[in-house]
Amino acid sequence: MNDKYILDNLFYRLNDIMKNEGIQHISDIKFDNKHPLTFYSEITDNSISIKKPRLFLYDDFSFLSNDLVHFTLLLFLFRPFINDPAKENGTYFQNWYDARYLSYSSVLHSTVYNFWDRIGDLLNCFFNTGLPDNSVYIGRVISNFPKNCRDSKYFQQLEEIYTNKIRNLILKRNEDAHNQSIVTGHYFNIILAKGEDQVEKAKLKFSLPEIFKEQIELAYTGFELALRLIKEKKWKN
């Protein structure tokens, strides 16, 4: 049995999970019955920009979608084999599957951050936020969005998704990048917890595949809303 055979079978298994969970790559989604690249290009090419979007920005969305899908599928694959303190008398002797599972979740936190950061980059090309190039992050773009555009239903939906579904996850990513890794946080939160508190913290760990499945859908919604907001600006002008 060679390595290629093993990898091929892994990818076949991930493809089965993808179908069973209804997870899609961004290229599988239609916006106004159009491929995402067509939808993106028609709007960005025909709208007045403050500066041209970075070359290959759409490709970034596509490649980040690859990572969102792949690592979320790995979470679904690994979950049945990770440690469950409730079934291990409150102990947590971390196995290999559990370690990899939490590592993949760390990658996903960063990938969600990167996808939404690109949404911020895109919006900043078409709306005057007043932000210098080194301060363009999705949270700052939303906070500094032009007042005369904030009444748009697309902006309000985007702001609500970011505030209620994305911001906290990005804060966890920032903590992971600058202070304590997500893997360490999960591991020691579970070890140090007792009784019902430990059970609840373990439940969070077990819910990660569903959390990131939702994040994939939210990322695509954010992509669509940003482009509809840009298109709406064109017609308002």
Short description:
With 237 residues, the chain is mostly helical. It has nine helices and no strands.
List the helices and strands and how they pair.
Blueprint: H1 3-21, H2 36-45, H3 57-78, H4 96-126, H5 138-143, H6 153-178, H7 182-192, H8 195-206, H9 208-236
Summarize the structure in words.
70% of the residues lie in helices and 0% in strands. The chain is mainly alpha-helical. The chain has one domain.
Features:
237 residues, mainly alpha, globular, single chain
Strand content: under 5%
- Based on the structure, what is the oligomeric state of the protein chains? single chain
Low-confidence stretches: none
State Rg: 20 Å
- Residue-averaged pLDDT, rounded? 89
Largest sheet composition: none
Number of domains: 1
How many strand segments? 0
